[in-house]
Amino acid sequence: MKRVILSVVCLTSIIFIIWFWQTHKISDYNATSQFIAETYYSCDAGKQIKAEYYKDPGFKVKPDNRPTPSGKVELALSDGRLMTLSQTISASGIRYATKDESIVFWSKGDSAFITENNTETYSDCVERVWTLGNKQEDEAVTSFLLSRPELSWKTTAGSKNFCIFQNLFPGKELFPHYLWVRCGEYKMENGQLKELSGVSVPVKVDYPNELSYYDLNKFSILIPRDGSPYDEDVKLIFPPEIQDRLHFESSPLNEKIKQEALRSLL
User: Fold this and answer.
1) Do the strands 220-222 and 192-206 form a parallel or antiparallel pair, or are they unpaired?
2) pLDDT band at 234; cut points 50, 70, 90
3) Helix, strand, or coil here: 61?
4) What mean pLDDT do residues 169-176 have?
5) Smallest Cα–Cα separation from 173: which of 52, 46, 76?
6) Pairing with 192, which of 58, 69, 174, 248 sits 20 to 30 Å away (CA)?
7) Distance CA 262, CA 266 (A)
8) How buried is residue 3: exposed, middle or buried, by Cβ count under 10 Å (0-12/13-18/19+)?
């Protein structure tokens, strides 16, 4: 009788151990998934997407020996939904989808969109690194930057000034905004675009958070001083979590302002 009881206890323990291991183990996928980046998108109709991208070393292999991407994206939509989509094969851009393909998230460059049951529900989404979240605010801030003599000035008759910005704190929706600003004075000469003057600096732009049209006279700006005071000013002006972003590759900004100037002047 004791042997029977002991056998039952052992069998029960084994079953419990197997159940616990199956329900509490970390899958190979999650154990090896590596966080890549967090990106915020602003879309048409005021919709927003927060995307956290992950990658998995190597590729999964289907039964037919075709390698498939094994990354994933975690989405937080402005309608309150949270979802995790797996990366799938894509001829262009990066594609993520649910198992039944009812929801698909595409991202390419600094743009993205979502389809649900073959209907586009989040359209013309742009990384908030190039926007503050809405067109009206973008245009008001750009106009303010162009009005600042320390950022935008003319040296030659017939030239035109442009300012663009990179949002250093894309998760922040209200003022103040922390931006890297690139302004330049351009002119077409002999069919070629020529930059006559320009500046590239980090700035803090503030405005009273009130529901009204934007009055350029109410904006304020802080810019770190050149030379030895620069590092000290950066610590005073910018939050600690973005100070390390003030050392980055400037070529995307240079290319973006050049393209904007070409579109306007050609």
Assistant:
1) antiparallel
2) very high
3) strand
4) 89
5) 46
6) 248
7) 6
8) exposed
Question: Are the C-beta atoms of residues 38 and 50 closer than 8 Å to each other?
Answer: yes
Predicted confidence band of residue 56 (pLDDT cuts 50, 70, 90): confident
Per the omega criterion (within 30 degrees of 0), is the bond before 176 cis?
A: yes
Beta strands per DSSP E along 175-234? 177-189, 192-206, 220-222
| % of the chain with per-residue pLDDT over 90 | 60
Averaged confidence pLDDT in the chain: 85
Residue 200 DSSP one-character state: E
Domains in the chain, ordered, with CATH? Answer: 28-127 (2.40.128), 135-265 (no CATH)
Which residues lie closer than 8 Å to 261 by C-beta, 6 or more apart? 160, 162, 184, 186, 193
Comparing 56 with 9, the larger pLDDT belongs to 56
CA 61 to chain centre: 30
